[in-house]
Amino acid sequence: MNKLLKLTFLALLISAASCEDATDIIQESELGENNAFRNVDDLRSGLIGVYGSYNPDGGSSTVLFNDLFTDNIKKGLNNFGQGSDTFAFNMRPNNTFAGGIWGSRYATINFANRVLRAWDRIFPTLTNPDDIDKANEIKGQLLAFRALCHFELLQYYSPNYNRSSQGVIIMNFVPEITQVFPRNTVGEVFDFINDDLDDAIALIGDFSSLPDYRNDDTSQDIFYLGADAMRFLRARVFLYEGRYAEAETVAENLIADYPLAAAGAYFDMFNADTPSSELVFSLSRRQDDGGAAGLYYTNSVDRNGSPLYELSNQLLNLFAANDIRREVILLPEGATGSLIVGTDSPNNILLIGKYPGSADGELINDFKMFRSSELYLIKAECEARQGKFSEAETSIQTLRNVRLITGTAPTPSYASNLTLALVDILLERRKELAFEGHRYLDLKRLGAETNTGILRSNVDCASFDSSNCALLQGDYRFTLPIPTSELAPNPGITQNPNY
Amino acid sequence: MRSKFTWIMALFMVLTFNLSFAQEKTVTGTVSDDAGQPLPGVSILVRGTNKSTTTDFDGNYSISVSVGQVLEFSFVGFTSQSATITAASGVINIKLEEGQVIGVIVKDAYRTVSERKATFATTTISAEAFENRGNASIIQSMQGQIAGLSIGTGSGQPGADSAIILRGVGTINGNFEPLFIVDGVPVDEDGFRSINPNDYASITTLKDAAATSIYGNRGSNGVIVLTTKRGSYNQDLKFRYTSQFGYNELQPVNIDLMTSRELLQFQKRSGQGLGSTLSDAEIDVLSRQANTNWSDIFFRKGTTKLHDLSMSVGSANTNNFTSFSYFEQDGIFINTNLKRFTLRNNFTGRSQDQKFEYSLNFNANFSRQSGLDGAGTNSIFFAPFRAALQGLPYLSPYDANGNITRDGGIAPGNTDAITADNAPYVLLNSSLMNTDIEDEFKLITGLNAKYTFMKNVTAGMQLGLDYSQFKALERIHPESILGPFQANGTNTTQFGGLQQESTSRDFRFNSLFTLNYNNTFADAHTIDLTGYVEYIKNHFDSFGFVQRGLDPRLVGTGAAFIDGETVEGTLRPYIPTVSSGKAEEGLFSYFANFDYDYKGKYGFNATVRRDNSFRFIDENKWATFYSLGGRWNIDEESFMEKLPFVDQLKLRASFGTTGNQRINNGSYSALNFTRNLYTQSGGYNGTPGTVPGQIANPDLRWEVTEQTNVGLDFGLFGNRLSGTVDVYRKFTRDLFQSTPISAVNATTDIDTNTGALENKGVELFLKYVIYDKNGWNISVDANTAYNQNRMRDLPDSYNGIIQPTGSATTLEGYPLNTFYVVRYAGVNPSNGNALFYTRDGGLTETIRDEDRVNTGKSSLPVWTGGFNTRVSYKGFEFSTQWSYVADIYRNNLDYADLEETNLVNDGTNRAVSAGTAWQNPGDITSVPRVGNQYNSVDYINSTDRYLEDASFLRLRNVLLGYNFDKKILEKLPFSGVRLYIQAENLVTFTSYRGWDAESNFRTTDRGQYPTPKIYTLGAVVNF
């Protein structure tokens, strides 16, 4: 009996070493989803995270790619081969931009969907009307970001914008890591984007201003996706969808509230990040953020700052001497500035000046996402496509005039010829939107109708020792390949033609 | 299964109620060798039980046994003996004869078994193989002594951690080092600098699955069991004092560096650097003024000191072992040092009837390591070892008074003077003025108890604790050359300097409860069955701060810290940063071990284990590991009588599984990979945001290793020739590695369990007693191991190769860390550019990724081993210990830097061979022209130009000792006196160009701290 007691005691001793505290451990530093998002303020913090994740002006993203792959860039003074592969049209599924754009936009979508999932959990518990308003405002912006990213993916990865063509993967929820998805059609993606934008505009509703999240400073509104920014995006989407009348209306309405900046204000907008009337949405870039100038320079915006890329001679030659855009786009000549030896001289040092750095850092500037000059270009194109050529001529001339320091631009004459109009609009888009992430997309969209491909001048092309100076319109490389990183885990995805 | 279980239970019940108490008695005695010298550390095992003891310093032992039981005496290098206990037995003195290896007791945390009866592949080395060596860490002394165990020490910092690989690397991202157990307590495998090697009696390496599976959740990389010295029962008080003193110095470097004259003339010829601006006469003057070998300035002759006093005593029912030691070793690099103080007390007590026994092992250690950061760094002003190798010879190391300069005349914060060529002055200044101290307090303590509360049934308990407290202090003095830059990276702040302190505590607790049944039936069948429950819990916390801005008058404590609120201009440059961390880990397991022996002739062992790791969830949380092992002691067979020269012959075979739950290397990592986590970051417009920080992998599971092992132990010709052969195959699946996933998850790859690694190999150990007569004993032994490491399965999407970012990568069908580079073809005689082979054998002057080829060379060794010789005559002994590594490769960036001809005026010296650079069309040379396309790092990252064979053979240890004869000592108060002189790393044979061919298996060497030669003179006195 004694033995049995001893055995029992022993068994108790062993079982006393309970195992749960050794096997079910949650670290104190863990922030799970339910704790990460508890209330409206946390949702707002999630929204800020979505803003922070969206970096078209970052390394392997759209802003650099549009100009590098096309005809706006030549090799910089201190470039040791960076970007030469992309410059040479070596577009393959393992291209850094093909992977970077795909990955970063889907990451932003994933971030937004996570906050939206938390929103669905928290919103029903809200009772305070003020909280409900704030929550709706947050959801509106999340949906707008989701729409923006899907739209950009569509722009780069769809071979064309016909509704039945291969689009991109629609993601409106948070997937499991083992899940993979096929591509949706372009039509499905457009519908999804428009639904998100409808919802977003409805939710943001009568919030005419979006107070800054730190100190209710309304001067910061420009840095957040407000109703007008959403409408701006909608104009772009309509244009791509071919809904020209609707695009024109949206553009026209917005133009009224966002008049073009005069030459001086235009210069200050880029050179000193000064707010300007034509700015609809800008990405705030502050100390320790990455900045657009870092795309073109390693250290600082000057000749000794290790420039990686410079302005192409071809682009520079397009600007009249009295065009304020020339002063913005080219760093002034000087000992540490640009050097113009002669027209198309191989010794020209054409330093990109659109992002000259700011008090926040030598390479840091706000990135101007939506400017109303683009609305003029959308409006002009829609007018031309609807046969309203004289209106189109006026729209273009209005933009040209305001960009001149002195004098006026000649009135363009399209003679009711759509091709002529589109060629002129494409030219103006190149000059107005260089280094803002448009050139590749414009050539892709308008290339066929204007019979325009990439044709670099010899001097620009030679800067990279490249023999690839031209790419015909309609080339398969005007659509990015689905990247290797997606092909590998996702057997159900279809690669774009010819890759 | 059920019927077997019932049978075992029935047996258990029957025996429980069939109690009979045999007469127990205490037997004592002395164990000595042929010459009558007492043998300390001899294992004494009561046959068929797990009761054991060891002899003390004077060879004395005491053990309680029953009449009829048999004592087995065994010791490494000696023939085992046994003695049957009779009613008359009281004192049993034993003389062991030298000449055999088999018969050692294998004792791990869970089991004790004589090696004859072990089904395991193990190797045991005893104290004499590693005690009193000059190395600060016991791990370093193990190198080359155990077949299959590769130990690589990558730093000469006294007490530096070593990389330890047993039977090849079986993981990609996880922990690859064996589990270390000290007296039953699992301890941190990286924490041996604070431990006194002289406290240890033996080290056993467990290799195959039969041996390691019982460690299931931690046994995949093998297990190393360290046992400390203990006292014996009924023993008089004994003292043992050990003292050592010695010197450490740099191993010779096999690189010819340029002299001042050679370098200046080379620069002149190249049109770059100082030399190009000087006339021949000026070069002549300058090279007469200074021709500095900077390694003479940075390296020194260091000293080693050791004092170690231990005491042991035993009464009828208690015994005790106490030791103190102080160890101090100066590194060979200026300002590097290790000081260590250790204290140990091992107490054992038992009840009068000897059914209950307990022991408490207490070990407290403190060590302070003064070191230098920056080994291997690319940042030249923080890379002391690079400066020592590459410093310009025409710079003088002396100040105006002829003393070694403290600053080379450079004012603190002078940006114009902090140029690459002045790096030696900056580093000299930094090492003299700045502080980098790491203190460790380490406590290892264990409480063991066992109680035979029924006949044949013993309950046991073990509580263990490994506690490490770590404090690091790093200070850059505000008045050092680099001091003024520390506040905000410029020299414009009023105050400079930096003080960084961090403290961490690591508390690792384990408990083990056991219930053992052991019995022998019909004098033939011995059964041993044990059940275990184990609980492990680790806690870690840390705190640290970095203060920028120190008042130079007060440097030392917080009194010097400039207030963070201080405003200079518009900035607050002195705001300190703080950090705080905390983490936990836990494991829970229950398991069983079954041993069966038939007349010492056949044996069978089985283990099964259920393990739960906190790292996994749901169905992956629990895992089952098992092993089966068998042996056949062929020498016990009657037919073996026809082969009288065979004394020992045992065949072993085993198969089993083990798991690795430390899927990420390093302690306290991969703590929650199964959960989605968010972090506060990703801010926008100056507001912090919340973003996903970790995407969950809920399917995470154990890395599982299956191992098959077949081994043969033998002793021939009166055991003059003895040895062991093992053949094994380890196959690890579910490797934790990066796998592509769809970008819709916000990341394009995640670490999952996929792929497999295979290690196959052969291990051989041989010992031969050449001569053993007339007081002479001459013996040699050798061990060698061959291991083939193969990546067997990568995620399909990689197409058999993970594209390399540097020189080494993972290739399916080849070893981990295989160099995948472009082949260097030499120099184009027409223009002096470097030439490379394209993939298809053509020549090109451009390094392109598509021309990379598989070299089949890896940074992990294929062949490792060592050999020992030992000669003794009367009291004299002379021994050597050699170790070698072969078929191992490493990128030599040190040499690449010294042969760099892309730039010549980069402020560093050159090897003489750089002078052969191409100059004129038609020159045939292997060094490209000055100004060629690529620099040293390009060659290292992408080509095989400096991929060198890092094989070496090294005389690890040579020792000459003398033991005073007992007769001489009779009149003295000493019972034993031994004097010796020894040297570590005396000679190395290698083709690798550098200070030190040895490394911790890294792929590239640049400015690493070389391991030293250590000479020591020692004395051991027993009284």
Automatic annotation (TrEMBL), chain A:
Give the SusD-like N-terminal domain ranges. Answer: 96-208
Q: In this protein, which residues make up the domain named RagB/SusD?
A: 365-499
Q: Indicate the transmembrane segments per the record.
A: none
Q: Which InterPro entries match?
A: SusD-like_N, SusD_RagB_dom, TPR-like_helical_dom_sf
Q: Where in the cell is it found?
A: Cell outer membrane
Q: Name one Pfam family in it.
A: SusD_RagB
The cellular component terms of Gene Ontology attached to this UniProt record, alphabetical and capped at eight, are: cell outer membrane
Q: Which UniProt keywords apply?
A: Cell outer membrane, Membrane, Signal
The answer to keyword RNA-binding applying to this record is no
Query: What family is this?
Result: Belongs to the SusD family.
**Could you tell me what this protein is called?**
RagB/SusD family nutrient uptake outer membrane protein
Automatic annotation (TrEMBL), chain B:
Domain of life, per UniProt, equals Bacteria
UniProt xrefs under Gene3D superfamilies: Carboxypeptidase-like, regulatory domain, TonB-dependent receptor, beta-barrel domain, TonB-dependent receptor, plug domain
What is the membrane topology listed in the Swiss-Prot or TrEMBL record? Answer: Multi-pass membrane protein
Xref: InterPro entries: Beta-barrel_TonB_sf (IPR036942), CarboxyPept-like_regulatory (IPR008969), Plug_dom (IPR012910), Plug_dom_sf (IPR037066), TonB-dep_OMP_SusC/RagA (IPR023996), TonB-dep_rcpt-like (IPR039426)
GO cellular component terms given for this protein: cell outer membrane
Xref: Pfam families: CarbopepD_reg_2, Plug
Key words, A-Z = Cell outer membrane, Membrane, Signal, Transmembrane, Transmembrane beta strand, Transport
Cellular localisation: Cell outer membrane
> Signal peptide position in this chain?
1-22
* SUPFAM superfamilies to which the protein is assigned, alphabetical: Carboxypeptidase regulatory domain-like (SSF49464), Porins (SSF56935)
Domain (TonB-dependent receptor plug) spans: 115-223
Q: Which family does it belong to?
A: Belongs to the TonB-dependent receptor family.
Name used for this protein in its record: TonB-dependent receptor plug domain-containing protein
Taxonomic lineage from the root = Bacteria, Pseudomonadati, Bacteroidota, Flavobacteriia, Flavobacteriales
